[in-house]
Amino acid sequence: MRQRWNRCGWFGALAVGALLLNPTPTDAAGCDPLPTIVQAPLGSPVVPTPVTTAVRTSDSSYCLYGDVSNTALTRLLFYIPGYGDGSTQPVDAMFQYLATNQEGELGEDDLLVAYANRLPFWPWSWRSRAEQNLEDVLGDLAARGIEIEQVVLAGFSAGGITAANVAARWKSSWPTLEALVVNDPAGLDFFFSLGNLSAIPASTRLLVVQAETSVGSNSAAGPIWEGTAHIPLVSNGQYHKNYWVVSSDVSHSPTVVSEHLSIQATGSEQPYNHIDYYGYWRRLYRAAWQAFLDAPLGDGSAYCNDAGPCELSFMGIWQDGIPATESRNAHDLGL
Prior knowledge:
The protein has one domain: Rossmann fold (3-Layer(aba) Sandwich). Helices cover 26% and strands 15% of the residues. The chain is built from six helices and ten strands. It has helices at residues 2-20, 89-99, 126-143, 158-168, 221-227, 274-293, and strands spanning 56-59, 62-65, 75-80, 112-116, 150-156, 176-183, 205-211, 234-235, 238-239, 241-246. The strands form two sheets. An eight-stranded mixed β-sheet has the order 1-2-4-3-5-6-7-10, sandwiched between helices.
C-alpha cells in the first residue's frame, strides 16, 4: 500500500508540475556559462586540474564540445543528462576534459562531445526526444562537412536508462554504435522504464558505473546489466563489458561519499575530487577511446572485468601516501 501511495504521490507531483512549469526542464538553449570549479579540500587525493579550453557550440537541442571547423573529425560521444539537468554546468568540466584530451595520449580535438538538451518534462517522451537530439547533432555536423562514423552513447541517472533504450533501437542509418556507458542509472521508480535491451548489438561494448550508495536501491544498473546478458565479457581477446561500483572512502577526514550526484562536480556542495576524476571521467574517456580504436589505451582498460590487476580500479592516493579505496569491478561483485 505504501508503494502504491508513493507512486500516486509522484504522479500528482508530475501532473501539478506539468501545469505550473514549462514542459522542458529549461528554456536555455545550448551551453550555459562556464561554472566555477571548486577543488576538493586539502589532504584529498590529488587529481588533475580541469581546463576549460574546448570550443563550445550552442543549439536549441544540444551543447557541442570540440572544434567543429575540423572536418576530419569522425567520432562523437553523445551524452544524455539526468532528469532535471537542463543546465550543462554540473557536467561541463567533464566534457571539457573529454573533448580536449587532457590525458595527453591522443591528438588534441580528436573527439566531439554532445550534451542532449531540452529533454521533455514527461519521462515517457525521453527516448524519442533524445533520438531527435542525436539526429539534430548528426545533421548539423554533416552540414558543416563533418561525417560522424562512430558513436559512443552515454548517460547519467534517467539519462542512463534513456541511453540504454536508445541503444536498443539504434537505427541502421546512424553511425556505428561502438559503446554504451551508463553512469549510476536511476529512475525506475519515477516513471522511467527499460525496454527490451536484447536488441543492442552484441558487438557494442558496455560499461555500467554505479555509486556505492546506490547499491541495493531501486537502481537501473542491475536490470541493465541483466538485460544485456548477450553482450560478452570478453570478445576477440579484449575485455568487452564491465560493471564498476565507485567506492566511498571513510579512512580519512573529511570522508568522501560516493553518491548519486557525485559525478556533478561544480559548486561548493559538489566539489571536484577523485570520485569525479577516477570514478567517472577517466573511465568514460578510456571506455570511449578503447571502443573507437578497438584497443585499450596503455595498460588500462575500462572494461577490465577479472581479478586484475585492473588499472582503473585505482582511485588515487591521499596526500599521506595511503591509496584511496579502490573501485570494485564485475569480478569483485561476482557478476
